[in-house]
What we know:
Blueprint: E1 16-20, H1 21-27, H2 31-40, E2 47-51, H3 52-59, H4 63-76, E3 79-85, E4 88-93, H5 96-103, E5 111-115, H6 122-145, H7 148-152, H8 157-162, H9 171-174, E6 201-204, E7 208-211, H10 222-229, H11 233-239, E8 244-251, H12 259-268, H13 272-279, E9 282-284, E10 287-297, E11 302-303, H14 318-328
Parallel strand pairs: 7-8
Antiparallel strand pairs: 1-5, 2-4, 3-4, 5-11, 6-7, 8-10, 9-10
Helix pairs in contact: 1-6, 3-4, 6-10, 10-11, 12-13
Amino acid sequence: MKNPTPTPTTLSPNSSAIASSILVDTLGCVAGVYYFARMLDGSGSGWATFSLEHAADSLGCAASTVRKNLSLALKRGCFYKVSVSGGVAVVRYRSDRKLRDHLGIDDLPPMFRLFAYELPIILSKATQASAERCQNTTIWLRRKSLRKQEKASMVTVEQIFQQESCMTRDYADLIGSSEFCGNPTPGGMGYPYMGALAEQAYFRSKRYLFVKPSFHSFGASQSRIGESLGRHRSTIARRLANTIKVQIAKDTGEGSVDWKECIREYQNEFDSEMVDYCKRRFSCSNKTFRPECNLYYLDIELVHQRRKLKPRKKQYKATNISSKLVKAA
Length: 329
């Protein structure tokens, strides 16, 4: 197969490609240049020609970094061939499925649509895709376990984030305030929730969504997202730092308790189990709340793909074989 003529092509900001979250996380720093080459090849020929300066502008890095990532991607198996001459690179890339087989990724990861303007934050978008799948899984499992009447009253993620909290004070000023869960005034602490959410939630601060005991909790914890990608929780927290999220704080019905004092007392008694129990609770407005999973409002499009099944081998029944032998005898 002859190499194409080295005529650089430009990438439109609205260009997109179907990306794999686990594959992006596995490739790391070279994922951007790999999907950049795939976006340039609109015909699916497997070849891409681009200038290093144009790739640097699209990826948000220097041209020397693009050159280094091209050599790293070649070693990792992203490209069959890489040729750089006169500031123009000609690459022949490996397909998504073949690259996953080459790297030994057996699980079918969440697939998402990646746009060209999202290439500088490709690792963050891959983490958002994993968070969206974990969150959708918990919502599906929660709805499956509820009765029909409870399913009708279950609020959605869109209903939670469409409500405006209108908070004018920091969260530190709200803790311990007896009027936080009362009747706020417009321009003061915020507007009350309306509709179905008002029956299950109190109010929302900058960090927490204070809900009633009847709220059906769902969401995705950073530890669970990290397990799906094989990353530490702090790495997930850093990648999702700029996303819109809120943590559920559920009313336990235990009233107002000085949990910090309880922690000190149980620490003196060396009761680690009760210390962990008290650390997972805090008091606000004469109520005790327990922090639970995070809820994320993510601008990402998941693409559902079916797993390619292996062809089944033809099986013969023993009864048919025995009957043929009897007839032959």
